[in-house]
Known about the structure:
Layout: H1 2-7, E1 9-11, H2 13-35, H3 38-44, H4 65-82, H5 86-103, H6 110-124, H7 133-137, E2 145-147, H8 149-167, H9 172-175, H10 178-185, H11 201-222, H12 224-245, H13 250-257, H14 264-271, H15 289-305, H16 317-320, E3 335-345, E4 351-353, H17 362-367, H18 372-388, E5 393-403, E6 409-410, H19 437-440
Antiparallel strand pairs: 1-2, 3-4, 3-5, 5-6
Helix pairs in contact: 2-4, 2-13, 4-5, 5-6, 8-11, 8-15, 10-11, 11-12, 12-13
Amino acid sequence: MLQKWLFKQVDSSALIVFRVCFGLLITIEAWGAIFTGWIRRTLIEPTFTFNFIGLDFLQPLPGNGMYYYYAVMGLFGVFVTLGYKYRFSMASYTLMWSCVYFMQKSSYNNHYYLLILICIFMLIVPAHRYFSVDVKQKPALKKFSMPNWVNIFIILQLWIVYTYASVAKLYPDWLDGTVPALLMKSKQDYWLIGDFLQNDWVPGVITYFGLIFDLIVVPCLLWKPTRKPIFIAAIFFHLFNSIVFQIGIFPYLSLAFCLFFFPAKSIQQRFLPKKKFYELEEVTVPNYKPALVSFFVIWFLLQLCLPLRHWFIPDNVLWTEEGHRLSWRMMLRSKSGHSTFTIVDNNTGKKIIVPKRNYLSKKQMGIVSTKPDVIWQFCQRLKKEYEEKGEDISIYVNAKVRVNNRPSQPLIDPNVDMAKAEWNYFSHNDWILPSNLEKSKK
Length: 442
């Protein structure tokens, strides 16, 4: 039964059309970063980037190197669109995008993580076996079908993303409209729509429409009677996100995913009328079945477990950020703060207040006051700089943070020498002070 479910051959029209859409979108993502100034602000202006801890070797190329890096990455996106040297092009884009993702955290976005996952998916599926340069050059590659596990994989992945995004909203500050109201307040200067977004009813609609949509979108797309209505709702939802939150290609990528939910015959007739429609439903079990099944199990166990890990770490993830990344906690809080880094010479007792602007870009200034892991990394960088000069120092941090418009609270224990503090990946860092968020809400 499982064998038939996974390896039954089905028409590949949705995958072929998705490849073209996906290739165009990742090209826009890469080249758009050049022309919007994202690369300059994020990867060129800073003297260093806050990479994922343990990956210090990932730093931007010197000078204008990152412009060339993104230009090449966009070219691989074009090759994916055309289906030219598909496996190599997709693998190259995946590697280059992953390196940038793990290289910097000042522009962290959970959608960037999703793009890595989809890149890996596209790398292993037969998306180049029709309507591609590869097929034109090697006709033996042409195939009108794909194994059914392709559909299963993408649908399960999307269900996990949307469901966790919905469940993460089930906390008081979202349900009472606090977070949506703060998000809309930050958009009040938007041309044309800024004043509209300040209407009292808007946060309430966003609160429950967002939560309910994320929870039901995949089941409703799977069920024929609700497929078209939820698709129309999805168009509105994702266009709203694109205009208001300006999150790049991801609203359009989300709409492209809907291809996998509509009947293959409809996709073939609408987008690939010259393609032969495959309907034999043969079951072809490949030699790689054991490896594929093992991959499936490991992949989805990780996808199910990673977003839950913050429940096994003391204190509130909104405060500590421990377990926030590599999950689907999207646009769930508003944080602001300020911090002071004091260096003490252990030989003379002399104290120096660190001039942060001498080290950090404007984008980095925000996260170095609100995110404990970034605070720790900055302290380690200062420690290394002074050690290279032969100086023995201690570093003390005074940081106060406000979450969802609550009163400011101290974030870091001011009595802990952060030069000696360690970072624990899988457990709580006790130099982060308790949050007390529940009692501090106005």
